[in-house]
Predict the 3D structure of the following.
Amino acid sequence: MIKVENVSFTYPSGVNALKSVSIEISDGEFVAIMGENGAGKTTLVKQFNGLLKPGEGDVYVDGRNTRDLSVAELSKDVGLVFQNADHQLFCETVEDEIAFGLRNFGFSNRVNKKRVKWALTLLDLQEYRKISPFMLSGGERKRVALASVLAWKPRVIILDEPTVGQDQSQKERLLQFVRQLNTQGNTVILVTHDIEFVAECDPRVVLMSHGRIVADGPAKKILTNPKLIKKTSLILPQITQLFFKLADLGFPKDVISICEAKKLINDFVARRS
Amino acid sequence: MWRVEKMVSPIIEIDGLSYTYPGAKKQSLSNVTLSIDKGDFVTLTGTSGCGKTTLCRCLNGLIPHFYGGEIKGDVVVSNLNVRDHAISELAQQVGFVFQNPENQLFALSVEREIVFGLENLALPPDEIRERLEWALKTIGIEALRERSPYEISGGQQQRVAIASVLAMKPEILILDEPTSSLDPQAAKNLFQVISKLNKTLGLTIILVEHRLDLLSTLTDRVIIMDGGSLRIEGNPREVFSSMSAKLMGIGIPKIVRLYQELESPPEKLLFSIEDFVGYLKRI
Amino acid sequence: MKAFEGLRFKRTSSFIHQLDPRVKFVLSCVVFILAIMFTELLPLTILLSVQLPLVYLAHVHKEWLSSLRSSLILATMIFLTNLIVGYVSSEFQLTSSVLTYSSSMTLRFVTLVASFSIFFLTTSPDDLGLALEQSHFPYEFAFAFTTAVRFVPVLANEAQMIIDAQKSRGLELEKGNFLKRIRNYLPILIPLIVNAIRRSLELAEAMESRAFGAKEHRTNLFALKIKMNDVLVLIVTLTILAFSIYIRLYVQIPIVEIPTFQIT
């Protein structure tokens, strides 16, 4: 679906944000791009919908070189939801906000209506349909922003720091939602440094640092590697920290989620007693 | 060296506090009564919109002096009733560090940022210079003194914000979600700076946070708010083990959650990694 | 956003950077007065070239050139307007004096841009704020000025993020006729304004919490002081001014004319 070949990118200010990055993301994959602030995560995903074009190298979306396409053309397939919802909300009602993208992409009025309704239901926003997005709480505004992108059903959904400023219940809701999107066949890409969140959804993890990809593999393998984690200013998941200390009792070291930890410990306790 | 003596006497006393923002129909705080001892490290948490930030604003007089609105009950901070004292007066008792580092740094260099409040208080230049050096050193940002705030990282920006508040030598430091935009390592480092201020200077800390994982071993007291009132409070062990904390959508540390979800958990709460290791080795 | 680059202060230290902003301002004003005083090509060329060593001393040649470059369009317009007006008024003849006059007008403009961009490139906005304060502008005014400068890059960055977010929702800024294009900017302007208001509220809150306006006369730790170098530069500048006035009044300036090729 997305293919990045030896891409380097330098901002006009001279910041060298990507250094010969190559990565392939297939249709239906669930990927978390992680790394410290300023590692180049956002710069990388902006290449996916053409907001930025590579300085060197090429990016292909569905076999098409992003250099040949506009942001609008690419965004139809690759939906990018930014971290701060306030950077995009501007309409008088939530409904209009969701319809904005649909209108830009030239869907018919009939389809528009149907999709708006679908997106409102999907994110549990029906009751706010006629309300100004500025009247909503932070968490709700984030959901409106998400709905406004999901409405045109992009095949790839990129969420930039979706958990920042969210409380635990909002995070749990988001977790369920993201999983659901992925099981429905969407390619989901998370850009985040929230390691506990990633530990619970177990995606493929791409670790970035100083403009390079330093590791790529299943979450279980990457998030339990102390060297890599330290290099990228992350912290080992709490559960992993626990299992590192339990290694001499015969526990495996590569445990990241509560669910798995629970099973292992329950078994252990049952065997001992 | 300047140090607040740690003794068990309340430094903050809130009695029957209710507050409604101007133009709002619903109360943002309803009947809050709370007292906080000198030298405590208090973590204030709760889902978004529960009134945490509003409560903090009451402590340094932003409410009612800046926001207006309807306030009932009393807030007494360092023996000053916030209603009768200007924010600038309270600022010398209560330092406030905000969520977004970008919007609380106005100067074009770190040095000028730190002296801003002191200049406003019209302190003599020699004292300002002395406090500037002290604040830079205490927070460990001497190397940044000439830098401008938009050249440094988010974690460094928050340290500058803390230093600039610390220079006013308050007894209480309030921090409203200071780590929300930081990466985990930077957040952890910031918590360590805060804990150090609490331990070495005896500063009373009120920290509003969602990341309880990293805090559970640093804080003395956890307060959970919900719908504008205090719901649960106590030491972290007590609070995290109560089932209602989980039901209220609080991000209780994963270790505690793991304990709660065990099939046959031991009676005594397993609160830290060490607790878990000890327990499993014993059986 | 590139338009700001030429005016953005770069924190380095040099002889020029360390001069008092008030002295530098006098220097720029003297250049301004001289550029107005002379219309001849020769003195204007001298005026422009004496600034080159200053640029070199301050290590800002890159930024300085870029601000000159961005004034190029305006310079061309000035040149063409003068040329056309001269051409028409001299009965449709492209005389050498018209050409010379247009050139010197353009040169005058470039000289002004050059001198003021040296001023802005080498003066930290902080110092500028202090200079305003010490020149008896109210403190609030000086503070508003430095804060505005502080937030230019922040707002520029925010505008870019908003543009990115809306483009990602299929907004095409360059699409449609003139009216449609103006409307295209609404989805960018509204969030920009809303966020600016929110930001200013947060700023006000933070300022209040740091005792802004607590005392009528606040301390000023970094007060500007006139140093020996400042006095020297001031004397040199004023001497040049006096000398130039003398030349203007009593000396015949040699006329350099640009020759024209008669088109027949």
Summary: The interface with chain A takes residues 2, 158, 161-162, 164-172, 186-187, 190-191, 194-195, 198 of chain C (CB under 8 Å). The mean pLDDT of chain C is 87.
